[in-house]
Amino acid sequence: MPKLKETNLTIDLTALKHNFNVIKSHVSPSTQIMGVVKAFAYGTDSIVIGEKLIELGVSHLAVAYIEEGMRFRRRGINTPILVFYPQLEDLPKLIKYNLTPSIYNFRFLEKLIKGLKRRKIQKFPVHIKMNTGMNRLGFDLSDLASLKSILTNQVNVEVVGLFSHLSSAGNSEEVDFTKEQIKKFNTARHFFKKEITSNFIAHLANSSGTLSHPEATFDMVRAGIALYGYGNNSQEQLLLKPVASLTTVITQLREISPRASVGYDRNFKAQKDTTIATLPLGYADGISRIYGNGNAQVIIQGQKAPIVGNVCMDTLMVDVTGINCKEGDVVEVFGKQQSAIEFDIKAQSIPYELITRISRRVSRVFTE
Ligand SMILES: *Cc1c(COP(=O)(O)O)cnc(C)c1O
Fold it and tell me: Which residue CA neighbors atom 15 of ligand 1 most closely?
């Protein structure tokens, strides 16, 4: 491990490539891959990851919000970018930056058509989002007839994609529900082909859909978490390599006696002679207080050291009793020696949340 002086999030582009190839090996050669780079590419770095994914062969990128998509356009990236959750207020930017909206309700569709008409824009590409059971965003199957009448009576938007989202693709106890979602999506897909347009990309699978449900891969898959090296179950996890490693250093070591306490509100009290290491990393860096008080562990000299007491804003303390370590030693929070899943020993959260929350205060370092 390189000698680092501070807290870093090291992003391994070789692992990204490995994970991309895992996704690729799970779809047919004609199936396109959309690289999901929302939320700073799951807490890593939007531009570096986006550019690398384009080099690796994704046909599309996806972001959550318009502002996220604009970052890519400003960098001169012209790959189609789907915006999952465009907001009506940002419509002028959507058009100006040539971002592709996900259309999830009639209100948005009608406003968009009106805005495009006013600007005399025709055939603006959009993806239509269907709700097949997630009940978050999207049109229901019962909306299909109304969708047809709106879409076939205008020239301003062109449907280039039809998609939906699986709620439980990585959950083996919900296979029947996933199958039901696939069936509903197929109903919508056939309706669109027959009644609206024959030339669109159908996509349903997220990472788990891709890895665990081959029948859900259609014309394109939307890969997010798997690209960053995490699966939603142990079989998926075996295939993947975590891309991001969070490391820091020991700032101070201290011996404490029985009954001495550590940190705010004295939440940790030593039962015996204990060695405490203080790390320059806290909840302002994205290590939530939920990980305090023994709920998570870090790796020092190859050994597990649990977090003791409450996590502070800028620091946290770990119990290193019996570990042969010194001030300045490198500490791995998650990455190569333990994954984000292993860090979170009490499963208080999921890798998605942990990795997307590493704050901008932590410097990003790239390796290949
Ligand atoms: C975030 C997101 C994805 C990616 O999901 P993963 O589980 O990270 O692969 C795909 N589709 C939509 C609509 C999303 O919001």
Answer: 84
**What is the CA(36)–ligand 1 centre distance, in A?**
7
Is the C-beta atom of 168 inside 6 A of ligand 1? no
Strand partners, 83: 63, 101
Pick the CATH number of 31-231 from 3.20.20.10, 1.10.150.450, 3.30.450.20, 3.90.960.10: 3.20.20.10
Strand partners, 130: 139, 164
C-alpha distances in angstroms, 7 versus 111, 286, 287, 358?
46, 12, 12, 11
Q: Annotated catalytic residue: which of 111, 183, 194, 264?
A: 264
Q: How far is the CA of 223 from the centre of ligand 1 (A)?
A: 7
The ranges of the chain annotated as CATH 2.40.37.10 are 244-367
Does any ligand 1 atom lie closer than 6 A to the CB of residue 164? no
Q: What three-state secondary structure class fits 235?
A: helix
Reduced to 3 states, what is the DSSP secondary structure of residue 128?
strand
Q: Distance between CA 177 and CA 172 in Å, rounded?
A: 10
Q: Ligand 1: distance of its center to the CA of 165 in Å?
A: 8
Catalytic-residue membership of 38: yes
- Residue 208 CA to ligand 1 center (angstroms) comes to 9
Whether 230 sits among the annotated catalytic residues: the reply is no
CATH 3.20.20.10 residue spans of the chain: 31-231
Given this model, what pLDDT does residue 88 score?
86
Ligand 1 lined by 225 (C-beta under 6 Å): yes
CATH numeric code, 244-367: 2.40.37.10
Residue 3: predicted pLDDT: 46
Q: What is the DSSP letter of 139?
A: B
The mean pLDDT values, 10 residues at a time, for the chain of 368 residues are: 73 98 98 98 98 98 98 98 94 95 97 95 97 98 98 98 98 97 98 96 98 97 98 95 98 98 98 98 98 98 98 98 98 97 97 97 95
Specify the pLDDT at position 1: 43
